[in-house]
Design a protein that fits this description.
The chain has a 5-stranded mixed beta sheet with strand order 1-3-2-4-5. It starts with a strand and ends in a 5-residue tail after the last helix. The longest helix has 16 residues. The chain is globular, with a radius of gyration of 12 Å. By secondary structure, it is of the alpha/beta class. The protein has a single domain, classed as Glutaredoxin (3-Layer(aba) Sandwich), CATH 3.40.30.10. Strand 4 and strand 5 form a beta hairpin. The chain is built from 4 helices and 5 strands; from the N terminus they run βαβαβαββα.
Length: about 110
């Protein structure tokens, strides 16, 4: 299961993480977000230890979405060493998402 990132824990969990982090920006009302959500959860379980996976609800934490200029959801950001190293906009099949993540893993 993916972690829940909020304003309170984002810096410690994401920016200061010693492993790459996949952050899923989503909202309850977003159909494509609900499609990719279970895929993100699966990736979180399967890549545990190599990749930290979590979600930001843009309705509950708009400040984080604003800071990273999230204009469309779902948007997935990959952080490494505190920096955004990849941005994935929109839902996609799991194999395609995993392929995009591979270069960022340890």
């Amino acid at each position: 299961m993916a972690l829940e990132f909020t304003t309170a824990n984002f810096d410690n969990e994401v920016v200061k993480s010693d492993i790459p982090v996949l952050v899923d920006f989503w909202a309850e009302w977003c159909g494509p977000c609900r499609m990719i959500g279970p895929i993100v959860d699966e990736i979180g379980k399967e890549m545990q230890g190599q990749l930290k996976v979590g979600k930001v609800n843009v309705d509950l934490d708009p400040a984080i979405a604003q800071k990273y200029a999230i204009r469309n959801i779902p948007t997935l950001l990959v952080f490494k060493g505190g920096d955004v190293v990849d941005k994935i906009i929109g839902a996609m099949p799991k194999p395609q998402l995993v392929a995009k993540l591979q270069p960022h893993l340890r």
